[in-house]
Amino acid sequence: MSTHTRPLSRQDYKTLGLAALGGALEFYDFIIFVFFAVVIGELFFPPDIPEWLRQFQTFGIFAAGYLARPLGGIIMAHFGDLVGRKRMFTLSIILMALPTLLIGLLPTHATLGILAPLLLLLLRILQGAAIGGEVPGAWVFVAEHVPAKRVGVACGVLTGGLTAGILLGSLVATAINKGMSPSEVSQWGWRLAFVLGGMFGIFAMYLRRWLHETPVFAELQASKALAEELPLRTVLREHRGSVVISMLLTWLLSAGIVVVILMTPTYLQKVHAIAPADALQANSLAILALTLGCVVYGRLCDAIGSGRTFLLGSVLLAATVNLFYRGLLGGSDALYAHYALAGFAVGLVGAVPHVMVHAFPPAVRFSGLSFSYNVAYAIFGGLTPMLVTLWMKEDVLAPSHYVTAISAVGFGVGLLLWLQQRRAARIAQPA
After folding, report:
1. Burial class (CB in 10 A: 0-12, 13-18, 19+), 82
2. What is the dihedral of CA 58, 129, 383, 162, to 10 degrees?
3. What does the angle CA 342 – CA 390 – CA 396 come to, to the nearest 5 degrees?
4. So what's the pLDDT on residue 149?
5. Can you give the chain as a three-state secondary structure string?
6. 85-104 and 190-207 helices cross at what angle (nearest 10)?
7. Structural contact between residues 302 and 151, judged by C-beta atoms closer than 8 angstroms
8. Angle (nearest 5°) at CA 345 between 339 and 347
9. What is the CA radius of gyration of the chain?
10. Residue 105, Cα to own-chain centre: how many angstroms?
11. Distance CA 92, CA 90 (A)
């Protein structure tokens, strides 16, 4: 049996499991902020500003983490292509755990005044630099460990692990909101979530000790085939088309995760007056469905190709997102079912890394993927919360309209990939 098509081995499953669990714990640290956005906005900004401005500024600090991602991602990817994937994969943990812990200990506006949101902004930027190296590093790491015909499911499982970190954050936030009174959450409960995140980071760093360098990088190192110049320079000179495709898919990924998963709990509370605990419970169910969707869509990439997967997935995403947000206008009776369907459809993000790891050659893969993903996420993921928040002042269905529009982008990329794959298949056929 070819090594490209062999089943996943016990070592493959161990690598996947450790990488996914470590990624989940680190992703928890990055996103726990958004689940306490309402409380953080009340504590870190003056009490006499308009509510919409408070939300705008709070999501602005949240978005700063996305804007900082290219800095960490490009630097870590540079060294990841030159000295090894594993070292950078471990470094990102430290850069995430310490700022998360410090946010949990940070004095509020009542104590520090304007210095409080500025320090919060600085720590959020450090978190962004860390996650900028973590996500592309994790995708490259698992893709280079498994057989070529199993890259889709491996990346889907890893992405599912990252989304499980969002689920963990949602569950912790739900437990804190259900187990404490609103005043207790405001006084100290929200801090518990961040301190716990710092501890998760330390544990994730311990887990990474058991991982080994990828066979692909080890082979490049042994054959002296590492990049001879700045890897990013090679990417920008020779692989611009791959960068564009990867950026468009990152736009799709950011729309699904940021709007449907991260912003919606606050949207449910503020726009539809749904209790925080109920909004977070529904969100937890949606993230559970998202995690499953990541694995399913990753497996589909291996089975039918990435082009068809994005054609089908983009249509399903647009349909379920419209069903969910429009359904809220008639009440919250179908909240859980509709949110779960939308969450599963967002699982299309699990197919994104399958395309991106194949878009760049091994010698510059980490740099190409990291640059494309992080720059696009800084632009689209960073600006989306503020854009959608402002749009909602005029249109209560702004989240639905935004995600539907980006689904059309995903469909267009899927069509392009399908045509490329058909052309490649014809060329490969014997005359």
Report:
1. middle
2. -90
3. 50
4. 83
5. CCCCCCCCCHHHHHHHHHHHHHHHHHHHHHHHHHHCHHHHHHHHCCCCCCHHHHHHHHHHHHHHHHHCHHHHHHHHHHHHHHCCHHHHHHHHHHHHHHHHHHHHCCCCHHHHCCHHHHHHHHHHHHHHHHHHHHHHHHHHHHHCCCCHHHHHHHHHHHHHHHHHHHHHHHHHHHHHHHHCCHHHHHHHHHHHHHHHHHHHHHHHHHHHHHCCCCHHHHHHHHCCCCCCCCHHHHHHHHCHHHHHHHHHHHHHHHHHHHHHHHHHHHHHHHHHCCCHHHHHHHHHHHHHHHHHHHHHHHHHHHHHCHHHHHHHHHHHHHHHHHHHHHHHCCCCCCHHHHHHHHHHHHHHHHHHHHHHHHHCCHHHHHHHHHHHHHHHHHHHHHHHHHHHHHHCCCCCCHHHHHHHHHHHHHHHHHHHHHHHHHHHHHHHCCC
6. 160
7. yes
8. 110
9. 21
10. 25
11. 6
276 backbone φψ class: left, alpha, beta (φ>0; ψ -120 to 50) = alpha
Q: Which residues of the chain have pLDDT under 70?
A: 1-7, 78, 80, 83-85, 89, 211, 213-229, 428-431
Model confidence pLDDT, tens digit, residues 381-400:
778 888 898 898 889 999 99
The C-alpha atoms of residue 290 and residue 345 are separated, in whole angstroms, by: 7
Query: Which among 137, 122, 119, 164 has a CA at the least distance from the CA of 76?
Result: 137
Q: Which of 156, 197, 159 is nearest to 309 (CA)?
A: 156
- CA separation for the pair 406, 54 (Å, rounded): 27
Note the pLDDT of residue 320: 97
Nearest-angstrom CA–CA distance, 119 and 39: 17
Q: In whole angstroms, what is the distance from residue 151 CA to residue 6 CA?
A: 12
Pull the structure tokens for residue 103: 């946010």
The reported pTM is 0.82
N-term to C-term CA, the chain: 26
